[in-house]
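Lecture 7 notes: from sequence to structure.

We start with a single chain of 89 residues. Read the sequence below before looking at the structure.
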Amino acid sequence: MNEEREHHDPRRSPPHGGTSGAAVAGLGMQFVVAILLFLFLGKWLDERFGTTPWLLIAGVFLGAGASFYSIYRRLMADQKREDEARKRR
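Now the structure, written as tokens:
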């Protein structure tokens, strides 16, 4: 157990377990970027097809939904990794 803390890889989660602050900030940035990307894609498609504002609205919801799903998958994988680490101790 002490050896694990001494040889901790800083690119992984913190030695005490849990998700690092940088990882959480990265998830927040991912959320914002995905929503903005889909927002502008929807706006562009609305201008192209004359469907204002429907594709913009759909883009925002699609970006938010995709972001939530991605964040959920990431956090569940982190949780599973932490649970497995606890079982090994």
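Residues 23-88 form one domain. Keep this in mind for problem set 3.
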